[in-house]
Amino acid sequence: xxxxxxxxxxxxxxxxxxxxxxxxxxxxxxxxxxxxxxxxxxxxxxxxxxxxxxxxxxxxxxxxxxxxxxxxxxxxxxxxxxxxxxxxxxxxxxxxxxxxxxxxxxxxxxxxxxxxxxxxxxxxxxxxxxxxxxxxxxxxxxxxxxxxxxxxxxxxxxxxxxxxxxxxxxxxxxxxxxxxxxxxxxxxxxxxxxxxxxxxxxxxxxxxxxxxxxxxxxxxxxxxxxxxxxxxxxxxxxxxxxxxxxxxxxxxxxxxxxxxxxxxxxxxxxxxxxxxxxxxxxxxxxxxxxxxxxxxxxxxxxxxxxxxxxxxxxxxxxxxxxxxxxxxxxxxxxxxxxxxxxxxxxxxxxxxxxxxxxxxxxxxxxxxxxxxxxxxxxxxxxxxxxxxxxxxxxxxxxxxxxxxxxxxxxxxxxxxxxxxxxxxxxxxxxxxxxxxxxxxxxxxxxxxxxxxxxxxxxxxxxxxxxxxxxxxxxxxxxxxxxxxxxxxxxxxxxxxx
Length: 497
Fold this sequence. Notes:
Layout: H1 2-8, H2 10-38, H3 40-76, H4 80-87, E1 96-102, H5 108-118, E2 128-135, H6 140-153, E3 159-165, H7 175-193, E4 201-205, E5 211-212, H8 216-226, E6 233-240, H9 250-266, E7 279-282, H10 283-288, H11 300-310, E8 316-325, H12 334-349, H13 354-364, H14 369-385, H15 388-394, H16 399-403, H17 405-408, H18 411-441, H19 451-456, H20 464-484
Parallel strand pairs: 1-2, 1-4, 2-3, 6-8
Antiparallel strand pairs: 4-7, 5-8, 6-7
Helix pairs in contact: 2-3, 2-13, 2-14, 2-20, 3-9, 3-18, 4-8, 9-18, 11-13, 12-20, 13-14, 15-20
């Protein structure tokens, strides 16, 4: 019955599902306000439950980020090429890797830095093929960058191509459509023209500012060869926003550090792991689902769920415990950097726009019920609660006693702030782990940074309540509200300096 309704009313159900996240988040944010007058006891239960939930998440983050750190250190020092030669002596060198780098107005020094990092891979470079996918609307500047990079790097890799993605009707300008274009051209050149076996090729979507660890493609080759179902997988490294961590201002540094540790932790959660930012899959699989969708802005979650439902649930993300270094948000000047960070986080929060697609496919798909239910519920939890978390853990506990004097005279009214404060204090202990793991994984301190400034940096995390409001809650509610009212955003490239 529900499937029939979804099929008969695609527009109505799509619009209803777009309204749902904003409705839920605004309801949860406002409930402690009006509920303090009408049902203060229920607000108290809501606040305590959320505090316990936040404590649980914090403990899991602390424990698993330590485990992820240890695995990353071990994997970084492992001899992947030697292991490949020993375990797969006949076919390890037959695997090829296509890397699509979608780029628009990216400074050439960023692209040069990305290609230089790729040139240091321990896997044979002649088996690595790079597609620089520029946007045609960038004009002559893009073509000049393409020619210059070809001149500098073409002798190092198996192939390095450049292509220019045109503006196509009904496509959304952004990373997803550009990646799809570049991937199709790369398949045409490597498989159709050069005759490489598509069954032995991976394809990687790489952000233009990303730098792979030198063993990434050796590790990826090992994972590809050992997996009994390599065409039903995406592989995800640990995204760390450390390329410019010492140059960005304190609020951005705290965010970059926190997100880096969270990305490490998530590698340990196979039940929650979804490809993000820079990741790899088999070219055969990408070709089978017609590559990345061209009518969306957030491409990573869409690519996973498009794959998951196409394979009827027989699809998952496997971790690669190696760092992939990316840039933290930065622009010319302090204020512009903050604006840049806000726009980037709003774009990330816009991933909630995928939830309508995910829920629709959940209803219509034939994937196993419990598996797809858990997958979808975890995504909904993360997306729907994005704007809610800050309000629930910072101000909600103080509202019932403050707004309702009668409730303030009750036992639970008097103890609510103390109970929630105690729970959240224990939750904050995980921040010590985050600070330590971050310090152990950051690049070395540059000479211009004094030792005292480094010692003082852990105290920057005291800014988290303010940072959480302006760079989590507000961009999240901004994205939810825009989607709720149909005010769709356009893809904005994160500015580089």
